Amino acid sequence: MEKFVRKEGLVVPLDRANVDTDAVIPKQFLKSIRRTGFGPNLFDAWRYLDRGEPDSDNSRRPLNPDFVLNQPRYKGATVLLARENFGCGSSREHAPWALLQYGFQAVIAPSFADIFFNNSLKNGLVLIRLDAKIVDKLFKETEAAAGYRLAVDLEQQTVTTPGGESFRFEIDPFRKHCILNGLDDIGLTLDHAGEIKAFEAQHRERQPWLFG
Amino acid sequence: MTAQTLFDKLWASHLVREEKDGTALIYIDRHLVHEVTSPQAYEGLTLAGRKVWRVDSVVATADHNTPTRNWDQGLNGITDAVSRLQVETLDKNIKAFGAKVYFPFLDKRQGIVHVIGPEQGATLPGMTVVCGDSHTSTHGAFGALAFGIGTSEVEHVLATQCMVMKKSKALQIAVEGKLGAGITAKDIILAIIGRIGTAGGTGYTIEFAGSAIRALSMEGRMTLCNMAIEAGARAGMVAVDDKTIDYLQGRTFAPKGAMWDKAVDYWRSLKSDEGAQFDKVVTLDAAEIKPQVTWGTSPQMVTTIDGRVPDPARESDPIKREGMERALKYMNLKPDTPITEIRLDKVFIGACTNSRIEDLRAAAQVVKGKKVAANVKLAMVVPGSGLVKAQAEKEGLDEIFTVAGFEWREPGCSMCLGMNEDQLSPGERCASTSNRNFEGRQGPGGRTHLVSPAMAAAAAIAGHFVDVRNFNN
Ligand code: SF4
């Protein structure tokens, strides 16, 4: 997992409430043996005009010009601005995978679905809950100014606008610690790598036939 | 020092650290890898830029998706594209990340991961063994702590050589006395599950003990531990004795020379101490166990060959009654039907439960000189590994089976779960030596009855279930 301290990026506004995980990544893409490669199929049904299949060549598919992600001014966005109850639906971890693999590093919304929330933080996708009024204000500012960027500071727990306005957000201290230090469960266990190595050395001494 | 159970000893000897709340890091000695649950784990390592902590702990094979026919066509013999991709992906991952040893598709030592581990001496007493597969409990037969894990845990073990877990409670299941003729380990474990239920072992590690267990061969003990998970326990185990040690001597990855002697000295300590305390004890009388046949869609829905399909009307618990009714409907069985009147469409002898040489010998002995009944559309034998297959062929068992009308196939998981093309068609009824009779397990709409290899063989000949104890003459 990548460390996340302070990130500043282009914002894309997705002005719909209750975006579900089926919309984030449709079910035909779950058969994969991989946990990568979901980026091109993020919001597949909205992003393309045809129906995507796992073996489709996405580069040749007709794009939906009306979908916000396809508008040139939002190309390269890393912050997704969304409405209430983002990520509702199934528990598929493919949803945060797809968002991350598309290039998103943070999602800002008034509220998120529970399972999606946990899955995202486990994978290092920072979810920021801000008051609905503030989110609304950010929507307006994003739409008004091309190239609108936000700075997300996880350490300070703030989102800062180009105008210098700052908003504080809350996050669970344990998860904050994990994301700040780039730690997933494996990372946490590897914090004890020294102890594991020491144990391993004694274990080898006692039962050498288990090694080699 | 207080008396310890075998489980206490295995736990203590692998404990790296423990938090105040009991969350522990447990060191893993052997990691068995197969093609279905490993791809995302390896990909996770790649994405995080991590390496495998200890390459020599990994033993890998492709078994779930591999076909049991047309091996001469190589990879092209795998017709399903997703199956083939999983097999090829494992090839690539092992090449990139390494392993102590890899038995790829088409290798003559390839086979079901739980058959080849012990067969190669890659499973040893005193080990912790994990695999992304719930039937990893099989390896506990060697006095090892062995349990199945999920894909994210596969990645965790690959990266850290450890599992994060809390210690479970200890359950002793003692089977005392002498088994009747024709009764096998499969009948013991089905009888146990019939007694304690599929959740009876939940939260426990089971140690199987008692004179009837000590009398079992290593193959039988593996059958027993294989289905510990069907009793709800993540791990099952049997203490080390002479049989354990004799089985391992000379196996490819077992220690040799002075190292062997040292290992054996240690292994002999791998049993529960006199007076060790278990959280729960269940005792069975071996002499009372009869041949078992499941009638429903859970391994606890089991009865004896001389029994009848139960009548839900006689069940007072409404939840249980409803479950029985649903199962009977799915199985298309009427209450009070004698088990011996259940006619079969297919017979499957195989799976990690019962596909070792002893199982095939037992089935062949029943089949010898007889013919598969006309109403049985397909009777197949799928050896657990390439080495089991070769041994059986050396003994002429393949001929006994094929002359009788059985198909003799290449090794793999096959119709145990039907990830390859070996499946039941909707409505078909099968006598199977596998471990799960869940709805759709062997194919959508398929109906599975779990039995021992000898019982499956006898059913194939008779066309319906028969009591193997008075069948052979
Ligand atoms: S034989 Fe069946 S139970 Fe055993 S590992 Fe294969 S699929 Fe799982």
Summary, kept brief:
In chain A, 32% of the residues lie in helices and 14% in strands. By secondary structure, chain A is an alpha/beta fold. The model of chain A has no long low-confidence stretch (mean pLDDT 90).
Written overview of the protein:
The complex is a heterodimer of chains A (212) and B (473). By secondary structure, chain A is α/β, with parallel strands linked by helices. Chain A is 32% helix and 14% strand. Chain A is built from 8 helices and 7 strands, in the order βααβαβαβαβββααα. Chain A has a 7-stranded mixed β-sheet with strand order 4-3-2-1-5-6-7. In chain A, strand 2, helix 3 and strand 3 form a beta-alpha-beta unit. The model of chain A has no long low-confidence stretch (mean pLDDT 90). Chain B is an alpha/beta fold and 473 residues long. Chain B is 31% helix and 17% strand. In chain B, the strands form 5 sheets. A 5-stranded parallel β-sheet of chain B has the order 5-4-3-6-7, sandwiched between helices. In chain B, strands 17-16-15-18-19 form a 5-stranded parallel β-sheet. In chain B, strands 11-10-9-12 form a 4-stranded parallel β-sheet. The model of chain B has no long low-confidence stretch (mean pLDDT 95). The radius of gyration of chain B is 22 Å and the shape is globular. Chains A and B meet through helix 7 and helix 8 of A and helix 2, helix 3, helix 5 and helix 10 of B. Iron/sulfur cluster binds next to loops of chain B.
Distance between the termini of chain A: 31 Å
Measured between the Cα atoms of the first and last residue of chain B, the distance is 55 Å
Morphology call of chain B = globular
The tally of strands of chain B reads 19
Radius of gyration of chain B, taken over Cα atoms and rounded to an integer in Å: 22 Å
Count of runs of 4 or more consecutive helical residues of chain A: 8
Report the total helices of chain B: 15
